[in-house]
Specification:
heterodimer, A: mainly alpha, 15 helices, 0% strand, globular, B: alpha/beta, 3-stranded antiparallel beta sheet
Chain lengths: 327, 257
C-alpha cells in the first residue's frame, strides 16, 4: 500500500474519532469511546450510539461516495471540472425530497423523505440514460445530465414558489443546504446497501478510465467496452449520490475539489485517483461536519454551506495554479 | 516478444456509409506477416474511416476479421493509434506507455514483469528512456506522438495500425519511426500506417494501398502504385520517382488539375 493511502487512512481515522467525541456534552475522549464500545449506565452510551455514531458513519460514507463518484466522473469525461451532480442525480433526488416535504409525507414518516429522494434519483437517472441514447459517447451524457438537472432545479423552484407557508419553504431551503445533524442508524442502514453496491460498481472502472486517458477510440480498440463502462458509471454514481442526497441533502464541491486536489499526488492516474478520492472525500466531509459543530455550535451551521465555503476558495486557488502552469 | 503467430487480417466487401454518403464501397484486402503497408490517398479519401471500420469502430457492411473478434481478443490482436493525439491527464510517459498493456492484464491484477519488459522495450525503441518520468502532457507535440507510438508498440500485437503517426515529427524522428515499423514487419508482424509523405512511404513500406474513388484504387509494391497515371488520377499531381543507389526517391512536383 502506498504512503498516500496510509496518510489518508490515518487522517480519516483521526477525524472519525474526533467526530465521535466532539459535541455539546463534553465528556472526554476515553469516556466517550468506552461508552460507545462497552455501553454502561446513564445517557452517554445512548448519545454515542444513537446520535454521534450514525453522524460519523454517514460522514465517512457520504464523503467517500462523493469523492469516488467525482473521481470516476472526471476520469470518464476526461475533464477536471466534472462532478457527480453533472448527470442530474443530486438534482432529481433533491426534487423528490422537496416534494416529500411539500406534500407533508416527510412529516408523516421519517423514511418518507429519503425514499422519495431515492425515487427522484432513480427517475432522473433513467431519464438521463434514455436521453443520452445507446451509443457510448460522453458528450450526449453531459447534455442529457444538464437537461435533467435544469428541469429538476426548475421544478424544485416551482415547489418552493407554490409552497403554502413560509415555514414549509424555509424547511425545504434548509434541507437543501445539506446536513448530517440528527440522523439515526436508520439512515445509515437505508443508505449503506445502495452505497456498497455503487462503490463496487465504481471500483471496477479503474482500468477503463485509465485507458480513456488516450481517448475513446484508443480505449475501445484496447478492449474497453465503452457502453458497459458508461452504464456502470451512471449506475454506480446514481446509487452513491442518490443515497447520499437522500440522507443528507445536497452537499456540493466535495466531488469536484477532492479529485482535483489529490490528482497530482496519484500521478494523475484515474484508477489510483478513485480510492484516493474516496478517502479524501471522507476526510473532507468529516472535517466539514466537525467544523459545523465547532465554529457556531448554537446556530446549526449547514454542512453543504461549509463545504461550499471551503471548496470555492480552494477551487479559486487551483484555477490560479493552473493559470500559472499554463503561462 | 510473445505471441508471434500472426492473425492475418482479412477484409471482404467492406462498405461504409456516413450520414447517407458512401465513403467506402466493397473494399477487400488481406494482410499477412511481413507486410509494412502505407495507406495513402488524398484528404477525405477514407483512410481513417477504413482503419476504424476494420477495427469495428464505425458501423459497416461486409466482413473484417478484426471487427469480428471480441473486444478483448481484438485488443490483443491489433494495436490502434488514432490520429487525435489524446492525452487527457498529466500521467508520466512510463504510465502512458504501460496503458498499451491494458488488453493483456487479467482481472484486477497490476503490471507483471513481462508487462514491464514490454514497456521498457517500447521506451527504448522510441528513444524515450530519458523522458520516462516526465508528465506526458508537458512534452512537445512530436515527443507526445513518439510516446503514443511507444504505447502502441507496448501492446505487442501481430498487427499495428496507426493513423498518420509521423505527421508533425522532425525528419530524423519520421525516418526512425518508419524504420521501427519496417523492422516490426521484418520481424514477422504486420503494420498499416496511413500517411501523406509519399517519399517516406516509397522508401520504407513494402506495399502501398492507394485509396480513392470510394475504394482501393491501387494495391501493390510502391513502384506499381506510384505510377504517373495513378498520381494524376487520384492525387492530381505529377512526380519525380527514381530508383537510386540509396533506394527509391520520390518527390511530388506539380499539381495537374
Amino acid at each position: 500500500m502506498s504512503r498516500l493511502a496510509l496518510v489518508l487512512l490515518a487522517v480519516v481515522a483521526a477525524l472519525f474519532i474526533a467526530s465521535l467525541t466532539v459535541g455539546p456534552a463534553d465528556t472526554g475522549v476515553l469516556a466517550d469511546l468506552g461508552a460507545l464500545l462497552f455501553g454502561g449506565d446513564g445517557p452517554l452510551p445512548m448519545v454515542m450510539r444513537e446520535i454521534r455514531l450514525p453522524r460519523a458513519l454517514l460522514g465517512v460514507m457520504i464523503g467517500a461516495s462523493l469523492g469516488l463518484a467525482g473521481a470516476a466522473m472526471q476520469g470518464y469525461l476526461r475533464n477536471p471540472l466534472a462532478e457527480p451532480g453533472l448527470i442530474g442525480v443530486s438534482g432529481s433526488a433533491a426534487l423528490g425530497a422537496v416534494l416529500a416535504i411539500h406534500t407533508g409525507l416527510a412529516a408523516a414518516s421519517a423514511l418518507a423523505l429519503p425514499l422519495a429522494a431515492l425515487a427522484g434519483a432513480g427517475t432522473g437517472v433513467l431519464l438521463v440514460l434514455l436521453l443520452a441514447g445507446p451509443r457510448g459517447a460522453s458528450i450526449t451524457l453531459i447534455l442529457a445530465g444538464i437537461a435533467i438537472s435544469s428541469l429538476a432545479a426548475a421544478l424544485t423552484s416551482l415547489v418552493l414558489n407554490l409552497s403554502p407557508n413560509p415555514y414549509a419553504a424555509s424547511e425545504i431551503v434548509f434541507w437543501m443546504m445539506g446536513s448530517l445533524a440528527d440522523r439515526s442508524m436508520t439512515h445509515v442502514w437505508l443508505a449503506l446497501p445502495l452505497m456498497v453496491l455503487g462503490w463496487l460498481a465504481l471500483a471496477t472502472l479503474g482500468r477503463g478510465l485509465d485507458a480513456l486517458t488516450l481517448g475513446e477510440d484508443a480505449a475501445a480498440a484496447m478492449g474497453i467496452r465503452l457502453r458497459a463502462l458508461r452504464l456502470t458509471l451512471v449506475f454506480g454514481t446514481a446509487c452513491v449520490v442518490g443515497a447520499a442526497t437522500a440522507v443528507a441533502g445536497a452537499i456540493g464541491f466535495v466531488g469536484l475539489v477532492v479529485p482535483h486536489l489529490l490528482r497530482p499526488l496519484t500521478g494523475a492516474q484515474p484508477s489510483r485517483l478513485l480510492w484516493a478520492s474516496a478517502l479524501g472525500g471522507a476526510a473532507m466531509v468529516l472535517a466539514a461536519d466537525l467544523a459545523t459543530r465547532l465554529i457556531l455550535p448554537e446556530r446549526d451551521l449547514k454542512l453543504g454551506v461549509l463545504t461550499a465555503l471551503v471548496g470555492a476558495p480552494l477551487f479559486l486557488h487551483l484555477i490560479y495554479k493552473t493559470r500559472a502552469d499554463m503561462a | 516478444m510473445t505471441d508471434l503467430h500472426v492473425e492475418t487480417l482479412q477484409v471482404e466487401n467492406l462498405s461504409v456509409r456516413l450520414r447517407g454518403r458512401p465513403i467506402l464501397t466493397d473494399v477487400s484486402l488481406s494482410v499477412g506477416p511481413h507486410d509494412c503497408i502505407g495507406l495513402i490517398g488524398p484528404n477525405g479519401a477514407g483512410k481513417t474511416t477504413l482503419l476504424r471500420a476494420i477495427l469495428g469502430l464505425v458501423p459497416h457492411d461486409g466482413h473484417s476479421s478484426l471487427a469480428a473478434l471480441t473486444p478483448d481478443a481484438r485488443g490483443r490482436a491489433c494495436a490502434w493509434m488514432p490520429q487525435a493525439r489524446d492525452i487527457a491527464w498529466p500521467v508520466s510517459v512510463e504510465t502512458l506507455v504501460a496503458l498499451g498493456r491494458t488488453p493483456h492484464l487479467r482481472g484486477f491484477g497490476s503490471l507483471t514483469d513481462l508487462d514491464r519488459r514490454h514497456v521498457d522495450a517500447a521506451l527504448t525503441t522510441m528513444g524515450l528512456t530519458g523522458l520516462r518520468h516526465r508528465a506526458a502532457t508537458r512534452l512537445s507535440g512530436g515527443e507526445q506522438a513518439m510516446a503514443l507510438i511507444a504505447r502502441a508498440l507496448a501492446q505487442d500485437t501481430a498487427l499495428l495500425m496507426a493513423d498518420e503517426p509521423i505527421a508533425g515529427l522532425d525528419p530524423a524522428n519520421q525516418i526512425s519511426t518508419m524504420q521501427v515499423f519496417a523492422d516490426l514487419a521484418k520481424g514477422g508482424r504486420a503494420v498499416i500506417v496511413s500517411m501523406h509523405d509519399l517519399g517516406l512511404a516509397a522508401r520504407h513500406c513494402t506495399r502501398l494501398i492507394l485509396l480513392g474513388e470510394n475504394g482501393i484504387a491501387a494495391d501493390g509494391p510502391p513502384a506499381a502504385v506510384l505510377t504517373p497515371d495513378n498520381l494524376a488520377r487520384i492525387f492530381h499531381v505529377s512526380a519525380h520517382y527514381a530508383q537510386t543507389d540509396q533506394g527509391p526517391v520520390f518527390q511530388p512536383m506539380d499539381v495537374t488539375r
